Amino acid sequence: MTSKDLTLTNVSRRFGTVTALDNFNLHVGVGELVALLGPSGCGKTTALRIIAGLESLDSGKVAVGEKDISKVPAHKRNMGMVFQAYSLFPNLTVEENVAFGLQMRKVAKHSRLKRSQELLELVGLPSHAKRFTHQLSGGQQQRVALARALAFSPEILLLDEPLSALDAQVRVNLREEIRRLQISLGTTTVFVTHDQEEAMSISDRVGVMSNGVLEQIDTPDVLYNEPATAFVANFVGVMNRIPANLADGKVNIFGKNLVASKKGSETGKIVALLRPETILVKKSENQGNAKVLTRSFLGASSAIICQTHEGTIVQSLMASLNTGEFQPGTSVDLEVTVNEVMVANG
């Protein structure tokens, strides 16, 4: 079955006095992978459960293609779902687990086992078909869960924190596998996660949520480099918060005048928001404007954490070449390499 686009229009959901979603709007194009990213309690899982039909909505509309499915029960929505918990059947073999959804749809045994073998080939487990799930590693079990969700060619694939229970390296490998499969199959996909790196690395677009509201949805590059709000700027990646004064649209940081964008206030005390890679650390022959607290070697780059004479902690991310001289206690000069800075109310 061909994938379709997904649209949520003015969707709201309340639990007593708590608003989980507030006039939430989302569009996922055909074959697109969109991640919903945000802190615990932001509403991302509620949105996914409403899409799946596992949670009712108080108002608004959910549509797949041109069809309003807001009142369609979960078992009649053509959606595949992969949960954090694998939810595999321990009494069934791997191929029987993958074929289970097809069995429920009354597909002939020969056809469903053939489809199961095709999916196991796709997820790299063709030789594990006759094994039981307790004979698999966590990463292998999640691959089986993914194959099962894809077996009946769903119009929409929903992934709810599917990798959070796995070890770090397995998580990286499997997320790349998920992306490869999603692109090759062209399945419209919504991926819920609290892991920024996960969301940014595999998604076409990422939606950042806060308090039931979609703060911004954009490509990973735009989201990181051009955050629409101070919340997005602080939540996505590492952000330095440097106290400063705003006057006539300008902010002076480490002796350099920067143009303030997205001003939180017209004048007075503000906080300048600067990414670590926009801060240059230079060794000072004199007192400088800061001292090095720590240097962390990360391979090609190094994270250098400094403290200004005013007490502000500032992190820089620089190429590791020649950063070995920045030992704790070294006097340094901090410089800003950009000409514009986002500010928030102080």
Structure report:
By secondary structure, the protein is α+β, with helices and mostly antiparallel strands. It has helices at 44-52, 94-104, 109-122, 138-150, 168-185, 196-202, 220-225, 230-235; strands at residues 6-15, 18-28, 33-37, 59-64, 67-68, 79-82, 156-160, 188-193, 205-210, 213-218, 240-247, 250-253, 256-261, 268-274, 279-283, 290-297, 301-308, 313-319, 331-336, 340-345. It is globular and about 80 Å long. Helix 2 crosses helix 3 and helix 3 (109-122) packs across helix 4. Helix content is 24%, strand content 36%. The longest helix has 18 residues, at 168-185. Strands 6-7-8-3-9-10 form a 6-stranded mixed beta sheet, with helices on both faces. It has a 5-stranded mixed beta barrel with strand order 11-12-13-20-14. A 5-stranded antiparallel beta sheet has the order 15-19-16-17-18, with no helix packed on it. Strand 17 (301-308) and strand 18 form a beta hairpin. It has 8 helices and 20 strands.
Structural classification: alpha+beta
**DSSP helical segment count:** 8
Residue share in helix: 10-25%
Low-confidence stretches: none
Q: What is the arithmetic mean of pLDDT? A: 91
**Portion in beta strands:** 35-45%
State the major sheet.
6 strands, mixed
* N-to-C series of helices and strands: EEEHEEEHHHEHEHEEHHEEEEEEEEEE
Principal-axis shape? globular
Number of strands: 20
> Kindly, what is the distance between the CA atoms of the first and last residues, rounded to a whole number of angstroms?
53 Å
The whole-angstrom Rg is: 24 Å
Order of strands, widest sheet: 6-7-8-3-9-10
